[in-house]
């Protein structure tokens, strides 16, 4: 028996839908508004059975971009599995359960599964709100793998931050899957040559998240690239390991100071902010800031996998990951 999401309308069908085919406004009851922004609103709702879900009302271009991404993503998954397989349990994107037009609502809607804790919640559960190095690397390895998959589909996320990664409630409580969400700003990868024929969602991103956005995105009229997502991912990692970011106390409007603080992270040996961040992760910032070409994500993944494998097998403390001088000692103890 096929699931509800496998019977979703196509983007063409929802664009051509007639008024008398609109979904009743009573199908979902909104409990509270979670967030409002340039692209619409995100809300907690319940269906008629009382099950909690997330419903977003999105402007036309953002809605169309996200549904088209989902269609391509599901098609890609099914090319590797049986077309009748239930992909929802292992889908690393937030599962879309319903979407379309709703009576009395100007914007189109998308209904998603309600996910569990995000990375900020996870961080706060640790002592001093600092994730242990090995666990942090395991989390970040999962996150960058999903980001890289998104890039390979031809899209950039543009809102990478701790709340964009959530755990899906699972029967496997030891290793629940990490899911990428918050796709409302997502768009196709473009450059100057292809930008003229793209939707406005590609060009409009007025509310920048200065806490996690790349230095490139603090400059007006710049195109968003896969490297920008990776740089944001790096800042998420620093937050997990250190419990805070060095520019948190700088006013959001002070672009110059925020940029200087982000650039200072390149000084991996002299920047005193680095205390708990593993050496292997600190070194990534050098490649990230080169920006001469697309970052080789496979190199980052391989480095993390080698470190996780090596130190998981050695009878040593996580602190030995912090300094290069301790790596040889760790090998001897192993």
UniProtKB/TrEMBL annotation:
Q: Which residues cross the membrane?
A: none
Cited InterPro entries: CK1_Ser-Thr_kinase, Kinase-like_dom_sf, Prot_kinase_dom
PROSITE patterns in the record: PROTEIN_KINASE_DOM
Q: Which domain of life is it from?
A: Eukaryota
Checking SMART domains in the record gives: S_TKc
Pfam families xref list: Pkinase (PF00069)
Where do the Protein kinase domain residues begin and end?
Answer: 28-308
A GO term, aspect molecular function: ATP binding
Q: What is this protein called?
A: Protein kinase domain-containing protein
Q: Which organism is it from?
A: Strongyloides papillosus
